[in-house]
């Protein structure tokens, strides 16, 4: 099983990311499209959705979790593809590749620089878009980053990481653990569907909410600092984009949530993470786009409380094209 499903026979420079298998092409139906519609979800040999065959031609690389990977959205309908089209229509041609991986937070984004991006020949994007917030709200602030644990202190640790990166059973363990954590934080596809008849109920935040969220925010800001360093060292400029959850909402100062969910607490936590993102950009001078606070979503643009349908993805693409054209084209013009 290990030899067949693992990565023991791959070369030392092989790109192998959990749930981002290079060269994968899936043609199937999707619940987000009319019955009978077939979509294509493909990744090139370097693990990216979309983008050119030559990584050296990538201008913008988008990082994020399932809201970036968009598993049930056709290649041409992803928000990154819609953004590329919108930029071209604004006389700002940019080649965009999608490096989203289901379940990724800034922890996964940081790990991607050691074992993925560094192994893609010629990859030198000018910008990295980081669509972030929802998954980071679920990260345990006490959890060790992969990047920290990979700084080997002994030969045994080096062997341990060599085995972990290639073992099929270890990958299965990681996938099952991630599924359980996603289930606990209501992050699974279609778990909380959004429809015109969605029922809402009054809700309140736990008394210890502020004390619980504070260490999450502090740890998140440290990860943002490290991620920014890695992106800058890679020769790119980071652009952070905030995210929206749709299972909780404030109405006249009072919380509501989808009936039977814990949406108020989850949404309030994401809001705190978003404020930390904006505060980080304010303090450091990095670029942030407050999509969560500025885009006017409707419930019909979401498949569930987290993931957009094709209409919502198109909305994100159009919004970001307007917001980012001056940033991307201005930087390009100065570079020229």
Radius of gyration: 20 Å
Q: Which descriptor suits the 3D outline?
A: globular
The CA-CA distance between the termini, in Å, is 52 Å
Low-confidence stretches: 332-336
Strand order of the largest sheet: 4-3-5-7-10
Helix content: 40-55%
Query: How does the major sheet shape up?
Result: 5 strands, parallel
Structural class designation: alpha/beta
- The count of β-strands is 10
| Overall pLDDT metric | 87
Strand proportion, as a percent range, falls in 5-15%
Our count of helices gives 11
Order of helices and strands: HEEEHHEHEHHHEHEEEHEHH
How would you characterize the overall build of this protein?
With 336 residues, this protein is α/β, with parallel strands linked by helices. It is built from 11 helices and 10 strands. It has helices spanning 2-5, 66-69, 79-89, 106-111, 146-149, 155-166, 168-184, 209-233, 263-284, 291-294, 310-335, and strands spanning 25-29, 38-42, 60-64, 96-98, 127-131, 200-202, 237-241, 248-251, 254-258, 287-289. The protein has a 5-stranded parallel sheet, with helices on both faces. The protein has a 3-stranded antiparallel sheet with strand order 6-9-8. Strands 1-2 form a two-stranded antiparallel sheet. Helix 3 crosses helix 11 and helix 8 packs across helix 9 (263-284). It is globular and about 55 Å long. The N and C termini lie far apart (52 Å).
């Amino acid at each position: 099983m290990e030899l067949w499903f693992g990565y023991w026979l791959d070369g030392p420079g092989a790109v192998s990311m959990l749930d981002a298998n290079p060269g994968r092409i899936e043609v199937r139906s999707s619940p987000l499209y009319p019955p009978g519609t077939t979509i294509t979800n493909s990744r090139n040999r370097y693990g990216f959705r979309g983008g050119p065959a030559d990584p050296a031609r990538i201008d913008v690389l988008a990082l994020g979790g399932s809201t970036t990977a968009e598993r049930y959205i056709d290649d041409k309908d992803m928000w990154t593809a819609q953004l590329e089209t919108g930029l071209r229509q604004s006389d700002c041609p940019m080649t965009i590749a999608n490096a989203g991986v289901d379940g990724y937070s800034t922890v996964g984004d940081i790990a991607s620089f050691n074992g993925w991006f560094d192994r893609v020949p010629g990859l030198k994007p000018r910008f990295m878009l980081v669509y972030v917030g929802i998954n980071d709200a679920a990260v345990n602030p006490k959890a060790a980053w992969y990047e920290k644990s990979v700084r080997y202190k002994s030969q045994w640790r080096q062997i341990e990481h060599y085995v972990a990166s290639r073992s099929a059973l270890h990958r299965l363990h990681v996938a099952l653990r991630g599924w359980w954590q996603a289930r606990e934080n209501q992050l699974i596809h279609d778990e909380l569907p959004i429809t015109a008849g969605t029922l809402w109920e009054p809700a309140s935040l736990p008394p210890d909410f502020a004390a619980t969220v504070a260490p999450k925010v502090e740890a998140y800001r440290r990860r943002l600092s490290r991620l920014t360093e890695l992106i800058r060292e890679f020769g790119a400029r980071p652009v952070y984009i905030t995210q929206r959850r749709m299972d909780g909402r404030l109405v006249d100062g009072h919380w509501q949530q989808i009936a039977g969910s814990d949406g108020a607490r989850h949404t309030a936590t994401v809001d705190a993470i978003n404020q930390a993102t904006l505060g980080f950009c304010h303090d450091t001078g990095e670029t942030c786009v407050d999509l969560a606070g500025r885009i006017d979503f409707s419930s019909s643009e979401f498949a569930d409380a987290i993931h957009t349908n094709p209409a919502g993805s198109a909305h994100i693409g159009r919004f970001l094209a307007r917001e980012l054209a001056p940033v991307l084209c201005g930087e390009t013009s100065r570079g020229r």
